[in-house]
Amino acid sequence: MKWITPLILLIIFESFADIFAKEYSLRNSPWFWTGAISLYVLANSFWLYAIKSGSGLARGAVLFSVASAILALFIGLVFYKEPFNSTQILGMVIGLVAIVLILWGDLRPI
Q1: String of b and e for 26-57 (b: at least 16 CB within 10 Å)?
Q2: How far apart are CA 10 and CA 40, in angstroms?
Q3: Which is higher by pLDDT, 103 or 13?
Q4: What's the whole-model pTM score?
Q5: Closest by alpha carbon to 45, among 6, 12, 71?
Q6: Can you say whether the dihedral through the CA atoms of 45, 7, 1, 59 is positive or negative?
Q7: CA quadruple 34, 40, 43, 48: dihedral positive or negative?
Q8: pLDDT digits (tens, 9 = 90+) for 26-59
Q9: Is 81 left (phi over 0), alpha (psi -120 to 50) or beta?
Q10: Can you tell me the distance from the alpha carbon of 77 to that of 47, in angstroms, rounded to the nearest whole number?
């Protein structure tokens, strides 16, 4: 499971890139645009390594998508006070269940 670390780094850098993108949309600063693009490129370099290390395209893409969506909802809610509804919360809970089910076979008892 050496692909987990690059996948986590992908999600982290992608989340920061999303914050820079949101700031660019609010302030129209080329610095935020450059930061967002740079972080997206950095994040996707970890994606390439995760695929090469055995995440698989389908499993890695689903884990990335669900985790990124949950983080984006959290960032929008906490930092930008964006409105959300019960359907979005339900989607987040279902997403968390999806992550657990996808990783179920890889989880080892401690």
Answers
A1: eeeeeebbebbeebbeebeebbebbbeeebee
A2: 9
A3: 13
A4: 0.82
A5: 6
A6: negative
A7: negative
A8: 999 999 999 999 999 999 999 999 999 999 998 8
A9: left
A10: 26
